[in-house]
Amino acid sequence: MIVTQDKALANVFRQMATGAFPPVVETFERNKTIFFPGDPAERVYFLLKGAVKLSRVYEAGEEITVALLRENSVFGVLSLLTGNKSDRFYHAVAFTTVELLSAPIEQVEQALKENPELSMLMLRGLSSRILQTEMMIETLAHRDMGSRLISFLLILCRDFGVPCADGITIDLKLSHQAIAEAIGSTRVTVTRLLGDLREKKMISIHKKKITVHKPVALSKQFT
């Protein structure tokens, strides 16, 4: 459900992208890159539908997921924070099919100067992002893959969870490969670990959507 601040932020983005610069709405299919590290940071993005994965790519070729953004998130704002023209820091990929609204960074900067409330809305959104990134780092700090998986599922419950009669359903279609990439594991290992959780009646999976039956009990499964 979209909260008031999300609606306000969406409205502001639509207003910024009017006049001389018509709204730019783009659709990216699952696994398509939105921008690469090193790309020029020319636009700020507002996520209308779907989920976006932000990751860092290291010299050894390892790619670490730092955030999974849900609908009504803003990203691509590093230049706004530093005050300098900078290149993209993250690799942004469509985790699901996504719909994005974007505006030139200069327009966003001008809107921030003219509208103090927008600055507060952006700050709240970024605070939520930072919290999730910290949780992802904690997830990857677990050496045991079972603990990584459980930590990741709990993050998804927090950010994408929908309460249901059986617990909390993660409102994302998640392949075993996508989960493996997010936690730095392999598809075979993730398949085995999810199977163990299903046998323990901790989770169930229907049409690639995972339902966590008892999140508190699941959190106690850390090794």
UniProtKB/TrEMBL annotation:
The keyword Repeat does not apply. It comes from the Bacteria. One of its GO terms (molecular function) is DNA-binding transcription factor activity. Residues 143-216 form the HTH crp-type domain. InterPro entries: cNMP-bd_dom, cNMP-bd_dom_sf, Env_Response_Regulators, HTH_CRP, RmlC-like_jellyroll, Tscrpt_reg_HTH_Crp-type_CS, Tscrpt_reg_NtcA, WH-like_DNA-bd_sf. Residues 28-129 form the Cyclic nucleotide-binding domain. GO terms for cellular component: cytosol. Keywords: Activator, DNA-binding, Transcription, Transcription regulation. Has affinity for the xisA upstream region. Binds to a 66 bp region containing three repeats of the consensus recognition sequence 5'-ACATT-3'. Required for full expression of proteins subject to ammonium repression. Transcriptional activator of genes subject to nitrogen control. This is Global nitrogen regulator.
